[in-house]
Design a protein that fits this description.
single chain; 462 residues; Immunoglobulin-like; Aminopeptidase; Membrane-bound Lytic Murein Transglycosylase D, Chain A; six-stranded mixed β-sheet; five-stranded mixed β-sheet; elongated
Length: 462
């Protein structure tokens, strides 16, 4: 009898222990699942003229489902196996069409995020894998309703296209597209003191814009006007299709692992390989912009190589080298040059088939001295004036047909001077009341060139 009671007590205790172990085992098995829920660590909003981008930084990979609702307009994103965090309550809307972000856990375990909008927009979403300083990201692009899809057109480089005309009626304005590199999600290179490339090059680009705007017969346009990201292909396509530009100038600042590297550079496109190891490295770095800034890659958007494309590209590359060399020469008068000749590499942003295109590296932001210079207003002004002078010099010598510059060149070409025995360039410049440097540049003369009796000089307007 006692043995029976003792046995029952032992069995009961054993069952309790077994039950407890079972519960602990279940909890242990469930713990990884519970911990696997991904978190949104931060939310960033970038407002561009034609769209708004919202970026969710994630602790790991997720899936998502997106749909829209109206009255009022809103975008709903359901993210399975995700947790609500404080980051969703601290979103800076920056005065754009996004007016509120709401979020809540659903009964099925999903996290629902609602974007309240002040008008109807077309949402597009995609996921990005870790790249550079970022981890997993969910990107939502809110585009203007009725946004027309661009049509790919390749026009021969030699054909003059109708553009805006100057008020003088003596020819249209030359359109110069100024592209400040990086922006938004893509900060570009960052100096030791925290100077961001995207900020510096936007400041310099605005200064170039102001200098060129004061030049008669020139209409500058800014591809990027604020702190937002633009894909590389869109930058060059906007220059071609939206602005019908005569020249594309992309402004950047170098970075290299060797902090002693210094000096400004100018690049044109190369289709056969880079002209130096550094040129190749820099091109690879700049071409990573789409991956860092966030682009949904679609290879079908790439231009199809054709005979017309190749011929147009050859023509534009020839002129890219000419204008790039003139810009580099002017920059050499105000800052140290990394190399005294124009370089070439496979920069994706320069692949316009029908527009001369150059990429200007204004200095090494990774060099402490040049980082300070690039942040300096005085240095930015000097750079912008030098770059603008190079551009103007190029168009003085190679004006597009039908432009004010072309009409002016035709008038100037009628004034010539044949050099007599014993004459000097300074005497000729004084006689015609023109600047000596302008006279030399107009006739493509260097300090080492020797003038000779009977040589004909073209005299620029004073």
């Amino acid at each position: 009898m006692r043995l029976g009671k003792s046995l029952k007590k032992s069995l009961k205790k054993g069952l309790q222990i077994a039950s407890t172990c079972t519960v602990l085992l279940v909890l242990m098995l469930l713990t990884p699942v519970l911990q696997a829920a991904e978190k949104i660590s931060s939310v960033r909003v970038w407002n561009a003229p034609d769209h708004t981008r919202i970026v969710f930084d994630l602790s790991g990979p997720v899936t998502h489902h997106l749909f829209t609702l109206d009255a009022p307009d809103r975008v709903v994103i359901d993210i399975p196996n995700a947790q609500k965090t404080r980051a969703l309550d601290l979103v800076d809307f920056k005065g754009g069409p996004l007016v509120n972000v709401r979020s809540a856990a659903q009964s099925n375990g999903d996290l629902r995020v609602v974007l309240d909008l002040d008008r109807k927009l077309n949402p597009k979403s995609f996921l990005l894998k870790p790249s550079e300083q970022y981890g997993h990201r969910l990107v939502i692009d809110l585009e203007q309703s009725g946004k027309a899809a661009p049509v790919a057109v390749v026009k021969p480089a030699s054909v003059s296209q109708p553009k805006s005309y100057s008020s003088m009626g003596s020819g249209r304005d030359i359109v110069v597209a100024i592209d400040a590199g990086h922006g938004g999600e893509d900060p570009g290179a960052i100096g030791a003191n925290g100077t961001r490339e995207k900020d510096v090059v936007l400041q310099i680009s605005r200064r170039i814009y102001n200098v060129l705007k004061a030049e008669k017969g020139v209409k500058p346009v800014l591809i990027r006007t604020g702190d937002y990201f633009i894909p590389l292909a869109t930058r060059r396509d906007n220059a071609r299709r939206k602005y019908n530009a005569d020249l594309f100038v992309s402004v950047h600042a170098d970075a290299f692992h060797n902090h002693r590297a210094r000096g400004a550079s100018v690049f044109a496109l190369s289709r056969s390989g880079a002209t130096s190891t550094l040129a190749r490295v820099l091109a690879e770095q700049e071409n990573q912009s789409d991956a860092i800034g966030g682009v949904q890659i679609d290879n079908s958007d790439e231009m199809v190589t054709s005979v017309i494309y190749d011929l147009a590209m050859e023509g534009s590359m020839e002129h890219s080298i000419k204008v790039g060399s003139m810009v580099l020469r002017e920059m050499g008068g105000v800052t140290h040059l990394h190399k005294k000749h124009l370089e070439q590499a496979g920069f994706a942003v320069l692949k316009s088939p029908d527009i001369p295109s150059i990429l200007v590296e204004t200095g090494f932001i990774s060099n402490p001295t040049e980082e300070r210079n690039l942040s300096s207003k005085n240095h930015q002004v000097k750079l912008s004036r030098a770059i603008s002078r190079g551009i103007i010099t190029y168009f003085d010598q190679h004006p597009p047909p039908g432009t004010y510059f072309a009409a002016r060149k035709l008038q100037q070409d009628s004034q010539q001077h044949r050099i007599a025995r014993g004459e000097t360039l300074s005497e000729i410049a004084h006689r015609y009341r023109v600047d000596l440097v302008s006279l030399m540049q107009y006739n493509q003369l260097n300090n080492t060139d020797v003038i000779r009796e009977g040589q004909v000089l073209r005299i620029p307007n004073s």
